[in-house]
């Protein structure tokens, strides 16, 4: 692990709290608005699937970091991230240009509420996401613990256009073929996709699919029920608020690691 010092000199233990410099291993651009990247993982970097961490670059001589959900499972040897590209975004306008071999900053303290320990036991787990809000679920659907705790794992992903669903589609395909968790996902992991700004096999906002009951019809399950269902929500602030209201209307209560509950929320990285 490299602490950030001008010359790589040893850093006194008390000062090793800032970000580390990690090497970019892979970059993949999915659309003109979306890309993913993989970086080295320090041996001492521990996290729980679903957590986020600060990621950044040095801009004008100063670190510029933003919260990013870790999109790889906690057993993986490197760290994956899935990002939007914002043309005039202070960080993403630069981050989208990274290439293998470049360095990015990685915070030392992953944290977050989209973790299995924040939910009480139940039969079914819904992962409700829009846009890059799928990232923490890219981690959780590859965590064996998810399948040990839940009988049904339902990943719901809404985007504007079908091209924006491709990352999630490949992720689910790879997860089903994964030597470690593939077998555990059989008959348990389901993937529901929907688009809002073009025609598709399924259209409408995630919230609309819930309100109209189409989500449950397509899955062949009863509507949200606090006895059987748990949920994690990740998307824009508006999407989180609207989805949370629907879960609360169905009688589910928000939880946290300190007090596990029936659903948890986290805002997707936006700029
Ligand atoms: P829509 O096209 O109807 O706005 P964005 O890229 O803006 O974050 O949107 C990603 C997806 O989330 C889009 O399909 C968008 O639908 C949807 N979305 C935006 N706001 C909400 C909301 N309040 N509730 C549910 N889905 C939303």
Helix tally equals 8
User: What's the oligomerization state?
Assistant: single chain
Q: What is the CA-based Rg, rounded?
A: 19 Å
The CATH topology of the largest domain turns out to be Rossmann fold
Could you tell me the strand content as a percent range?
25-35%
SS-derived structural category: alpha/beta
CATH architecture of the largest domain: 3-Layer(aba) Sandwich
The total of beta strands comes to: 11
The whole-number mean of residue pLDDT values reads 94
- Characterize the largest beta sheet: strand count, sense, and whether it forms a barrel: 6 strands, antiparallel
Share of residues in helices: 10-25%
Number of domains: 2
Low-confidence stretches: 1-9
SSE string, helix = H, strand = E? EEEEEHEEHHEHHEHHEHE
In what order do the strands lie side by side in the largest sheet? 4-3-6-1-2-5
Bound molecules: adenosine-2'-5'-diphosphate
The CATH top-level class label of the largest domain: Alpha Beta
In short:
The protein is α/β, with parallel strands linked by helices. Helix content is 21%, strand content 29%. A six-stranded antiparallel sheet has the order 4-3-6-1-2-5. Strands 9-8-7-10-11 form a five-stranded parallel sheet, sandwiched between helices.
Give the key terms.
single chain, 271 residues, alpha/beta, Elongation Factor Tu (Ef-tu), domain 3, Rossmann fold, five-stranded parallel β-sheet, globular, disordered N terminus, binds adenosine-2'-5'-diphosphate
């Amino acid at each position: 692990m490299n602490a950030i010092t001008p010359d790589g000199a040893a850093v006194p233990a008390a000062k090793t709290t800032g970000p580390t410099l990690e090497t970019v291993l892979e970059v993949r651009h999915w659309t003109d608005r979306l890309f993913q990247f993989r970086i080295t993982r320090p041996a001492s970097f521990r996290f729980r699937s679903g957590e986020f961490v600060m990621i950044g670059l040095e801009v004008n001589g100063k670190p510029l970091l933003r919260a990013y959900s870790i999109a790889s499972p906690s057993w993986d040897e490197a760290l994956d991230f899935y990002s939007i590209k914002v043309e005039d975004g202070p960080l993403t306008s630069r981050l989208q240009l990274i290439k293998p071999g470049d360095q990015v900053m990685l915070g030392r303290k992953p944290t977050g509420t989209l973790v299995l320990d924040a939910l009480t036991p139940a039969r079914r787990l819904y992962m409700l996401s829009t846009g890059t809000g799928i990232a923490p679920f890219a981690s959780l659907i590859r965590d064996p613990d998810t399948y040990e705790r839940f009988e049904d794992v339902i990943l719901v992903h809404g985007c504007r256009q079908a091209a924006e669903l491709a990352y999630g589609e490949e992720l689910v395909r790879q997860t089903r073929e994964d030597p470690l968790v593939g077998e555990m996902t059989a008959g348990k992991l389901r993937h529901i996709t929907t688009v809002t700004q073009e025609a598709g096999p399924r259209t409408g906002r995630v919230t609309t699919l819930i309100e109209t009951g189409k989500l449950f019809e397509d899955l062949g399950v009863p509507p949200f029920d606090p006895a059987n269902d748990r949920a994690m929500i990740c998307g824009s602030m508006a999407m989180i608020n609207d989805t949370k209201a629907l879960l609360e209307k169905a009688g589910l209560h928000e939880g946290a690691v300190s007090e596990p509950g029936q659903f948890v929320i986290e805002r997707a990285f936006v700029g």
